[in-house]
């Protein structure tokens, strides 16, 4: 780490950023961590501008991404995410979660219809401007970066490969997302 | 496999004693020795006496160099003058998991330049973990008119342009096997570089290329190479395209399909099934990306003679595997993803009595929240049904000492036992104890064990067992294990046949490192990273053992005195001169 003492100040040390000190080593993988972001955190802090992920304090060592572990060759890693994508689905107010295989669906309408059937609710149609306004529910998902997104914004293939879990939010909370 | 009864004369060779041997004409000796294929047998033969040494080196056509830095190009070409085939291995194995810095070395180019001068009739080049760029591939393609076989495994530094050069210039090519490399995949047009007159290809493997290939060119190529017996496609090839290829290549012995999930109408499905069942010689099947359960029955008629089935890219569920297996009673080698779960492995145990090798890969290795996958139960189920099992690679999230003890009791012939409990330092799932007794059972029962990878929570006890019982062990991999220097000392003090030792994230320090002084000269290499070894310890080792190369890789921002990554290997070429700045040679 460079230390710039030109004007007697160690500017790097006083640099403001999110993340644990020393957490910008080049060798740390940037694959998804298990940070769960609640919606209240999203609306208050927003996504950081410089792209640093918000890290939880004192992440237990077992959950920390260790370089080269488990020992899987990189060409296998590239295949893994695209083989059968089981993700958890939660619905606000429902007692327990379900799991679905994203690979089974071919498009957003396909997926949304299945969700409606599974949970006996109406999600309605997606519009780029207004999201799912007009129905009682909004489907959201957590992507690889740990951010919560509205289902339907990105192309289907991109969604399939980046979706980690789904959450169907109740209408009242969902309205806020349309403005983010 | 041939082996020689080697009788050393009791006294050292002198003209009186050697009369018995030197009456053997050189030509006869060379003829006899030329039938020796095994490298170890040849090595042994060359040590008998001077005559045998020379006869061996003149008759050798295939040289295997397990560590490219253990010997220099000059030494190789001086000793062997008639080489047709070279196998070279470069980087330490942990480079596969990103533990070795970029530009570490193992560049093939200097070797190619020397070979072009001394072995102009070179026919085969097989590289593993070497760095090779497009210019080198082009140089290779134009320098060796008889060149026949190129195999690149886990290499990096080249792009599909390099493959284009090979396709363009190698008129006698029979084998192009590009597996699991870090390739800059610019596009599939390299396939169209094979000239229209080119018909000799027998082996073509481009399974790990990611981009779309020029299917038209591929179809024509397969159509005119009538001797093709191995064809491994990449994911971009669809089911319909596969069917068209198979119609022209019914003699395939090994097939790697492309993506196995296209929407097919009935007629197309039947055509595919028919094309597959016409491949009467097929004994190896792989690929099967995105395989959908509904299309798997198309494989049933084709697979009755299969001995090797690689399903590690197909996320099959347990039922799908259970339906596929009853027709595969001849299976000897099976690779699967852990999506098949324990139930799928039960089906393996029930249907594959001849199974010798099982590899279970994790579908989601980096996600702790996934609770499925395979456990101790699946492995135990396989062991009951497959007594001939001798090679296993098993990724799981839980294991018990009792299960492993049962497994090795059922399958005492293990030669390769690689168990990866994915959470570092995880104890026995039921008793919460360390997994020491599990590996103790393995080394005590499996006397033929050559390769062992350990995992889970392990104390020095595990290494006491290994040092004491693993008499045939050649390769040992250790991660997040051990309690003190004593553990590593036990291994170095025992294990008479140890050749490769790779250790990461263990509490072994200088005392352990230095306890293996003489041992390292009988080993190919030692790797230690994220342990407690210091620069001073390494310097001491370097001073005591001048015939070893000691290389230290420092990480940015680490303590000056720590030796973050240490790579020790024997060499008759002296320290290498091509190390990058991040690698210190002591």
TrEMBL record, chain A:
First-listed, main subcellular location of the protein, grouped into a coarse class: nucleus
Taxonomic superkingdom: Eukaryota
SUPFAM superfamilies the record matches: CAD & PB1 domains
Location of the PB1 domain: 84-171
UniProt entry keywords in alphabetical sequence: Auxin signaling pathway, Nucleus, Repressor, Transcription, Transcription regulation
Quaternary structure and partners: Homodimers and heterodimers.
Protein name: Auxin-responsive protein
Organism: Hibiscus syriacus
Automatic annotation (TrEMBL), chain B:
GO biological process: auxin-activated signaling pathway; pollen maturation; SCF-dependent proteasomal ubiquitin-dependent protein catabolic process
Pfam families: F-box_5, LRR_6, Transp_inhibit
Record SUPFAM superfamilies: RNI-like (SSF52047)
Membrane-crossing segments per the record: none
UniProt entry keywords in alphabetical sequence: Auxin signaling pathway, Developmental protein, Nucleus, Ubl conjugation pathway
GO cellular component, as recorded: nucleus; SCF ubiquitin ligase complex
Gene3D superfamilies (alphabetical): 1.20.1280.50, Ribonuclease Inhibitor
KW Nucleus (keyword) present: yes
Protein name: Protein AUXIN SIGNALING F-BOX 3
Native source species: Hibiscus syriacus
